[in-house]
Design brief:
This protein is α/β, with parallel strands linked by helices. The chain has 17 helices and 14 strands. It is globular.
Length: about 400
């Protein structure tokens, strides 16, 4: 049977969770009403409650199916065979979702998730990239904001200047949000599940790229390394960012996947930080993050924190979440061997719940894969990145309310 003849186009696995419900709501209110889809999970009563809740949001659309599935290989293979694409919001991913990726890769089912768990992503690339590629299954984690902003800048420089990009500095310019219980549980669990050497390996530069990466153009100064602080014209004072390693790894994989690094540029480098008010604040943030990460390597502290952090499946109230926001900014330098090479600026902003944004990323990525045949055919399959979905993805996200803008700088 062709995958197009399957019962569903899309199954949302984990629809009863905090992020899953946001994703289900976006599907119900924004995706085409003829979409054949289903919600899936372990509890039929909870899934029925989700269906009842989203039914009122858009009475004109097809009601989703209900699929009860455990995490056994038998159930997951049966689930994967029913759909063209599976969105997975069941985390922590390293604990529960390896068999989900395996089932999708082996059955030629496209796969999208919301993981930021770098050691697990590296493990999945090594285990299932080739299998997914052989079966024309596209799999991508939606760590999308930085990756897409970099792609927008690289594309702008290619289009306007017909050269590669030598360097991009990105920063989380503003973020107001509280983590969900699932996010905190994932952080704690990664340190229990993986060895320190595995975690360090997953954060090594270019480790997720399919080809070796370029050598650094110039090392950071010793004072910048020790303090974590640097000042970048037009971006301000920057310091160490909590998700910089995860985001950089995704960008570096995109570099290697896109025309063997030639589209981005053979000397391309990416560095990500967080914007702070002044150098003192930057030093405090850098030291706090460093000491915090070191402290979390001690099992007794993790045990204690697990007793007090919110439970998985919970998160900020809807009222509190509406006050959240995220803004990324980035500046790119064109690869031009001239004094004062051309620079470009890009900005991405979302006002509202960041878990709602995750649901938007997931649902809109799914629609690109399902409804943009030219993209799907050109990609083939494998464990890819958000940037590989290109301009159709950017366009859909803009239509969903995400601000993405870019321009050459004077």
């Amino acid at each position: 049977m062709s995958t197009r003849e399957r019962e569903y186009e899309l199954i949302l696995f984990g629809a009863t969770g905090y992020t899953g419900l946001y994703c289900a709501e976006h599907i119900a209110t924004h995706l085409p009403t003829d979409l054949r889809w289903a919600v899936a999970g372990r509890s039929a009563p909870k899934l029925s409650a989700v269906i009842d809740e989203i039914k009122s949001l858009n009475p004109d659309r097809l009601e989703p199916g209900l699929e009860v599935s455990s995490l056994t290989s038998e159930d997951l293979n049966a689930l994967a065979k029913k759909t063209r694409l599976l969105i997975n919001t069941v985390g922590p991913y390293h604990l529960y979702s390896t068999p989900v990726v395996e089932a999708c890769a082996k059955n030629g089912t496209h796969y999208v998730d919301a993981t930021g768990e770098s050691p697990w992503v590296l493990e999945m690339i090594r285990k299932y990239h080739d299998i997914a590629k052989d079966n024309n299954a596209i799999a991508t984690p939606e760590s999308a904001a930085s990756d897409l902003l970099v792609w927008v800048l690289v594309s702008l420089i290619r289009d306007k200047l017909n050269v590669g990009t030598k360097d991009i500095i990105g920063t989380v310019h503003e973020m107001k949000a509280r983590p969900s219980g699932g996010t905190l549980a994932s952080l704690m669990s990664i340190l229990d599940h993986y060895t320190l050497s595995q975690i360090v390996e997953s954060s090594r530069a270019w480790v997720m790229s399919p080809i070796p990466g370029p050598k650094p153009l110039a090392p950071r100064s010793l004072s910048s390394k020790l303090s974590g602080v640097q000042t970048v014209p037009d971006l301000g004072t920057l310091t160490t960012g909590l998700a910089s390693g995860v985001n950089s790894a995704t960008v570096q994989r995109s570099w290697g996947l896109q025309d063997q690094g030639n589209f981005y540029g053979r000397r391309f480098q990416y560095h990500e930080y967080m914007t702070v008010r002044n150098a003192f604040t930057g030093i405090v943030v850098h030291v706090a993050l460093t000491l915090g990460i070191i402290a979390l390597t001690f099992p007794p502290l993790r045990w204690l924190l697990k007793k007090i952090i919110p439970a998985p499946g919970t998160g900020p109230t809807r009222e509190a979440a509406r006050k959240e926001c995220l803004e990324h900014r980035a500046i790119a330098t064109a690869d031009q061997d001239v004094p004062g090479p051309q620079r470009a600026f890009a900005r991405l902003r979302w006002n509202g719940s960041l878990y709602q944004l995750t649901g938007v990323f997931l649902a809109e990525a799914a629609m690109v894969i399902l409804r943009h045949d030219m993209v799907t055919k050109s990609l083939g399959g494998g464990l890819l990145t958000p940037a590989m979905l290109g301009q159709p993805y950017v366009d859909r996200l803009r239509s969903a309310g995400l601000t993405i803008e870019s321009h050459l700088m004077d």
